[in-house]
Design the sequence.
């Protein structure tokens, strides 16, 4: 990767690869102009923007502490408790941009896409996505409420420190804004808006750069890194050689502290406190402060549903998440369904919408979506 000694560039190339093509742009503080592919020997740096459909970003809530290590541990614990374990070639990580500590899930299809465009990515000075670029650019303009939709990618709706993905239309976007209690419309951003802001404000590329383990460093950069690593290694060996005696005494002291720490963990969490007791303590403390804001009161939800239901209602199943869920049920006829929906509209704190209704024999089967 290229290194910029005087901050981030204000003139650069942008490449947006898709399956069978690459869109090229020349970016300056004044404009973003679509161009043909430039020569590899050009003096301008290259920013590659990957499609957002290969990534799922999550903004963790209420990260406490000034140390980044503590914030990373708390963010990773939130990810493990809120989302299922990655499968099918997917991966999960904590991404620190300097602006945010984010959860990042990478699709199993990303590897094939990277291999397809590997020659382009090896030329890149930095790699990013539209969301990461938008997040970095809007910090400079104090824009905390925005949306973006690129062809082939899900819509993104950012509300302060909350991010929602969805594949719905403008009507669903408006509904989500209303459900969030916001009276204004979000700023509609495009990739051109984001990139021009990056160029005009010289937004540091480190604040939205994405690392790809599948791409090796260019040869000159690798040699520079290897030389620096060798110098640091020799300096470290010389330093450690003079500190061996002191290290032994510190090891004994460390063992004593470790024993005392294990007693604290055992007293607070029991003997089976797992591989990350510190993170578990952070999570439990955060959970105890925010219990009233997480998920839904199951019994209270059933009570609301029961009070609005006609006698013929049969609930076949439901799934409840952090802020939304679905209910599958059936009734005798469409008249009862209409009355049921009217009654549900009076349920304070819940927003019910009808996803599907169809006749099945002498019953009407319905699927409701609820947000809370």
Sequence:
């Amino acid at each position: 990767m290229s290194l910029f000694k005087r901050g981030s560039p204000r003139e650069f190339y942008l490449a947006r690869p898709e399956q069978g093509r690459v869109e090229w742009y020349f970016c300056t503080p004044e404009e973003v102009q679509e161009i043909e592919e430039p020569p590899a020997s050009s003096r301008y740096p290259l920013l590659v923007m990957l499609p957002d459909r290969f990534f799922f970003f999550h903004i963790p809530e209420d990260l406490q502490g000034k140390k980044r290590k503590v914030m990373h541990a708390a963010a990773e614990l939130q990810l493990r408790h809120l989302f299922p374990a990655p499968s099918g070639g997917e991966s999960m990580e904590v991404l620190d941009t300097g602006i945010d500590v984010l959860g990042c899930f990478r699709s199993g299809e990303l590897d094939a896409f990277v291999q397809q465009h590997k020659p382009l990515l090896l030329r890149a000075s930095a790699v990013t996505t539209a969301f990461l670029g938008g997040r970095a650019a809007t910090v400079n303009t104090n824009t905390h409420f925005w949306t973006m939709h690129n062809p082939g990618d899900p819509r993104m709706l950012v509300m302060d420190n909350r991010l929602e993905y969805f594949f719905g239309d403008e009507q669903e976007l408006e509904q989500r804004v209303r459900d969030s209690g916001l009276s204004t419309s979000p700023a509609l951003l495009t990739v051109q808006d984001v990139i021009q802001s990056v160029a005009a404000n010289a937004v540091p590329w480190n604040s939205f750069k994405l690392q790809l383990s599948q791409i090796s460093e260019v040869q000159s950069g690798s040699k520079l890194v290897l030389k620096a690593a060798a110098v640091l290694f020799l300096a470290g060996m010389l330093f450690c050689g003079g500190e061996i005696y002191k290290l032994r005494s510190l090891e004994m002291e460390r063992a004593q502290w470790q024993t005392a720490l294990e007693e604290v963990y055992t007293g607070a969490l029991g003997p089976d406190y797992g591989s990350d007791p510190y993170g578990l303590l952070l999570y439990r403390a955060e959970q105890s402060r925010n219990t009233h804001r997480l998920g839904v009161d199951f019994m209270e939800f059933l009570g609301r549903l029961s009070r609005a239901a006609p006698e013929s209602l049969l609930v076949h199943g439901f799934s409840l998440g952090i802020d939304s869920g679905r209910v599958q049920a059936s009734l005798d006829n469409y008249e009862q369904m209409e009355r049921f929906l009217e009654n549900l509209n009076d349920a304070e704190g819940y927003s019910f919408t009808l996803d599907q209704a169809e006749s099945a024999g002498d019953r009407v089967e319905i699927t409701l979506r609820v947000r809370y």
Q: What stands out?
A: The CA atoms of residues 76 and 177 lie 28 Å apart.
